[in-house]
Specification:
single chain, alpha/beta, Beta-carbonic Anhydrase, Chain A, 5-stranded mixed beta sheet, 10 helices, 5 strands
Length: 226
């Protein structure tokens, strides 16, 4: 059983530590309401974003901020190093909901340079439970060993792995039945790979955009569901 703050004094101390967040929330809500009449009411009952964003949990990469969008514009899933794997039921549930119910038109996998998860995957250090997650990025390294090993500069090699990891996640999204069934239905849906630069705030389009299964390895193609 979890023991909560057991005295009034402790409760007040813990609450006060986050009072500034509640104050900022009031400022934000007041500003939004003044900028657009009925802003919250218009978003309260439904959402219709056209974008599913799969990004890193890094606090320096807030999805709606870096593309200058607002509440209701982006459906978001984030994890360590924006990894997409077929065993992640959380991500797959988000993907299915976004594609089949929200009918998003774009799925963006956005990595970012200087990603701590990617950096950790490049070392032989033990970090704990996260080592199991980082194995997925180590696989990306293994599949691209020749290209990465031929890159002498460490920073360039790091940046290349960040990009390759995002591209691999794009590929894995396209391998899902959820996305392939959407294409089979004729649903408008594109999957993109991007990377965000922490040093200048700009996003790099990795030149990966998939909107059908014609470029998918045959072993990953599904027949359409009935």
């Amino acid at each position: 059983m979890v023991e909560l703050c057991n005295t009034a004094q402790n409760t007040e101390a813990y609450s006060a530590a986050l009072d500034h967040l509640l104050a900022k929330n009031k400022e934000w809500a007041s500003k939004k309401a003044s900028e657009s009449e009925g802003f919250f009411e218009s978003h309260a009952d439904s959402q219709s974003p056209e974008i599913l964003w799969i990004g890193c949990s890094d606090s320096r990469v807030p999805p709606t901020d870096i593309v200058n969008l607002s509440v209701g514009d982006v459906f978001v899933h984030r994890n360590i190093a924006n990894v997409v794997v077929s065993s992640d039921l959380n991500l797959l549930s988000v993907l299915q909901y976004a594609v089949e119910y929200l009918k998003v038109k774009h799925i963006i996998v956005c990595g970012h340079y200087n990603c701590g998860g990617v950096k950790a995957s490049m070392s032989d250090k033990q970090y704990g439970l996260i080592d199991n997650w980082l194995c997925h990025i180590k696989d990306v390294h293994r599949f691209n060993k020749e290209k990465l090993d031929s890159t002498a500069d460490e920073t360039a090699r790091f940046n290349a792995l960040v990009e390759l990891n995002a591209i691999r996640s794009v590929q894995n999204i396209c391998h899902t039945a959820t996305v392939q069934n959407a294409w089979a239905r004729g649903q408008e849906l594109s999957v993109h790979g991007w990377c965000f630069n922490l040093h200048n705030g700009l996003i790099k389009d990795l030149g990966v955009c998939v909107n059908n299964n014609s470029h998918i390895d045959p072993i990953f193609k599904f027949t359409s569901s009935k």
